[in-house]
Amino acid sequence: VSREVKPDNTQLNIGGLTIGGAAFHVIAGPCSVESREQILSTAHAVKKAGATMLRGGAFKPRTSPYEFQGLKGDGLALLAEARQETGLLVTTEVKDTATLDAVAEHTDILQIGARNMQNFSLLEAVGERRKPVLLKRGMSATIKELLMAAEYIVARGNTQVILCERGIRTFETMTRNTLDLNAVPMLKALSHLPVFVDPSHGIGVRKAVPAMMRAATAVGADGIIVEVHPDPPRAKSDGAQSLDFSEFEKSMNEVRAIAQAM
Ligand code: PEP
Ligand code: MN
């Protein structure tokens, strides 16, 4: 994935969209798919605000086994319905190799979560596919470890990888994570792969997410992935960092202005 090997930027062509080119992309949607009404209303709202892709977890890697684990197969079917109805491309997390076939069938981009960044069997398995991968940085992973995780995928022949900075663990406890925006220019310099930022998990505080959306745009990312929910206080996961529709729409106008000025 090194720029020394391939000096020009890798561009991914996914369902008519070019990632890693001139256009800035916004992936938006709930942390978890919760219901038909929730995912369809969110898909329509984020599309109207200018998002080009829909996110939504169906297989959720939760810290506690007693927390909502996702709608699993039913969640995948609802994402497919939202994709069909809105034309938005879809990304969802693949949690393990056992569910890879099912997830790959229903998604345009396979998301590998922070907790799985060094799940080498999973990296090898997605490396065997020819489907784009959004690879999130582990919460305690260095930039080099993220790049090496990407190597595992690319070495198997799947060159369609997007790197994603999503915040790392530091001594700071006021925020959920510390969004390492340093990683963006470093990754862009070291690698030819597109780089995204997840400001939602990166800071974890709803009121502070829009500022980090703007910052991620200004620092030169190729896109961002943002959690949006129709009613954040009632979300089954990550409500504390999810924007409602009007907050998202307002932030999108700001992000668009910054992206156009770049
Ligand atoms: C998510 O995108 O909802 C998620 C679980 O992210 P991460 O793997 O970065 O924690
Ligand atoms: Mn989440």
Binned strand content: 15-25%
CATH superfamily (homologous) name: Aldolase class I
CATH architecture title = Alpha-Beta Barrel
Q: Given the helix and strand composition, which structural class is it? A: alpha/beta
Please give the alpha-carbon distance between the first and last residues.
25 Å
What does this protein structure show overall?
This protein is an alpha/beta fold and 262 residues long. The protein has a single domain, classed as Alpha-Beta Barrel (TIM Barrel). It has helices spanning 36-49, 73-86, 100-106, 120-127, 143-154, 183-190, 199-203, 209-218, 245-261, and strands at residues 12-14, 17-19, 25-29, 53-55, 89-93, 109-112, 133-136, 161-165, 195-197, 223-227. The strands form two sheets. Strands 3-4-5-6-7-8-9-10 form an eight-stranded parallel barrel, surrounded by six helices. α1 (36-49) runs parallel beside α2 and α1 runs parallel beside α9 (245-261). The mean pLDDT is 98. Residues 31, 57, 113-115, 136, 166, 198, 201 line the site of phosphoenolpyruvate.
What are the key terms here?
single chain, about 260 residues, alpha/beta, TIM Barrel, two-stranded antiparallel sheet, 9 helices, 10 strands, about 15% strand, globular, binds phosphoenolpyruvate, binds manganese (II) ion
